[in-house]
Amino acid sequence: MTRNCLPQQLVAALAARPTTVALTGAGISAESGVRTFRDAQTGLWTRYRPEQLASPDAFERDPRLVWRWYQWRRRTIAAAEPNAGHRALVELEKALDSFTLITQNVDGLHRRAGSRNVIHLHGDLCSNRCQRCAAPSAHEDNETVRPPRCTRCGGLMRPAVVWFGEPLPASALSAAAERIAGAELVLVIGTSAQVYPAAALAEQAVAQGSMVAEINPARTPLSAKVRWRLDLAAAEALPRLAAVPRRPSAR
Length: 251
Known about the structure:
The chain is elongated. It contains 9 helices and 9 strands. Helices cover 33% and strands 17% of the residues. It folds into 2 domains: 8-34 and 82-122 and 168-242, Rossmann fold (3-Layer(aba) Sandwich), CATH 3.40.50; 37-79 and 130-161, SIR2/SIRT2 'Small Domain', CATH 3.30.1600. Strands 3-2-1-7-8-9 form a 6-stranded parallel β-sheet, sandwiched between helices. Strands 5-4-6 form a 3-stranded antiparallel β-sheet, covered by helices on one side.
């Protein structure tokens, strides 16, 4: 594929309004200036490894330290804006009869762009939950320096994200696998295809015979297996896909 056009078979597939799933990873957020998780340590935080700040054990040892790091991450992410790739996914959701967005990202940029049908595999940094009873709550203040208490049980609130040593939410993983199972077209966008169990979803799509397109400037372990590989940034490729004319809906 040249950089100036899309594969004609992919264009034809999109024109037919297939049941579509998009699976996004850190690459699309990086295009908005959001550092990847392991590259997020700057300034004061360079002396810590992410594993020292993103685990239940770390929170138990020093909840205030972990909370301060996540507050800092929330402030940096709040300064970022959805890019053209995020916005194009919103347009695809509007244009297709069946579209689901599955994301490994916790930054909320898909929601801010306007995506509605989103499955968050790794949680949502813009929300909290109680470490003791798991009661959820919205997050409203990026300046507090210590975790608030749960209004239900008095436990400490924590970011509602998946930490090292924790499983992915069973409901999210089950819903994602179900949507992949029913997908005719799967767009794998900005993911390394190495973080499991999320990477298994793309492999599931390939194995079951779905049409799979990878959108990533860097090659991944999935690259040799997909039907189409677009060596482009999400902000470049996705607006082109969103602009593909589609047949009238049967609805």
